[in-house]
Amino acid sequence: MLRSIKYLVGAAFAGVLLISFFVGVSNYLSSPPAPTAEEEFHKHPKHLALASDGPLGRFDRQQLQRGFQVYKEVCSACHSLSLVAFHDLEALGYSEAEVKAIANQWQTEVPSVNPETGEPATRKALSSDRFPAPYANEVAARAANNNALPPDLSLMTKARHDGGAYVYSLLTGFQPQPAELVKKFPSAKTPNGLHYNPYFANLNLAMPPPLTSEGQVTYAPGNPKPTVDQMAKDVSAFLVWTAEPKLEQRHATGIAVSIFLLFATILGYLAYQNIWRTEKSVVRETGVLDPKNQAKTARARGKAGIQG
Ligand code: HEC
């Protein structure tokens, strides 16, 4: 009795699930979800080839220095880089004295306390400081940016899929909104104060195009021309470095470990061959039940004159 009730309850659940499945499928077929502007107009990042790509990749220090210059002269007006300290820049090839000078001349000062009065004050940055944020806090940052918050850029290239290429595409992707989009999705018209950019997830970005003209940043002689495209590439390479400054060490460790494992595999295989070479060809007498052993014992008994 109890058992049949159990089966009935189970069957009822399965039936309800089945019904809801078919209802769901028929609803989906009769009124499919409306396409959205994001679905149709969002683009994946463009291709960006950097020296640090691939398992053997190494940073192009010259490019990182240019990228740092773009960050310093353009992006740092709005974006913090809170996980990077000035002395980290030595990895880009700057000398200790150059880093000191960069810190000393940084446009924002570091919050501090006046030692004489105890009042809040600011002081010049030191090599050991991290990059000071451009705004005192989130409220100030939003107030200056149309209520949008410029995110910290330290880990940006890790936080987005294909980060280096994403930042590059975003910086070079500002464009007028396609007329076709507005025609098809009137409600998706770029609101005032936002900027159309098909590489941004929801297509409209609060950041005004930061790189707009060739020569916005002056590169030292011997560097490529500072076109918008070049500056965007360079600052993207720099942000790949800030997000993973130990990338070269990681690559080197990976290669060393792979070589070691390959070597260990070869040694292991040779040891295996060495041990089994003779073992497999030798026939062993393995115990009293082995016919060869029985023959032997029979012979020994016969020799000793023992019967049976
Ligand atoms: C005038 C201020 C300003 C400047 C200058 C600026 N940005 Fe932005 N940035 C913003 C704001 C505001 C946002 C937030 C946008 C949003 O959430 O819609 C943002 C967002 C971003 C994002 C994040 C996009 C995402 O996927 O969330 C990246 C990356 C970025 N900026 C890179 C840069 C780089 C690189 C530079 C320098 C070349 C730069 N920005 C210069 C204001 C600025």
From TrEMBL:
Highest taxon above the source species: Bacteria
Location relative to the cell: Membrane
Stored PANTHER family: CYTOCHROME C1, CYTOCHROME C1, HEME PROTEIN, MITOCHONDRIAL
Heme recorded as keyword: yes
Name of the molecule in the record: Cytochrome c1
Pfam families: Cytochrom_C1
Domain spans labelled Cytochrome c: 62-171
Family matches, as InterPro entries: Cyt_c-like_dom, Cyt_c-like_dom_sf, Cyt_c1
Transmembrane spans: 7-29, 252-272
PROSITE patterns: CYTC
Keyword Hydrolase included in the entry's annotation: no
Keyword annotations of the record: Heme, Iron, Membrane, Metal-binding, Transmembrane, Transmembrane helix
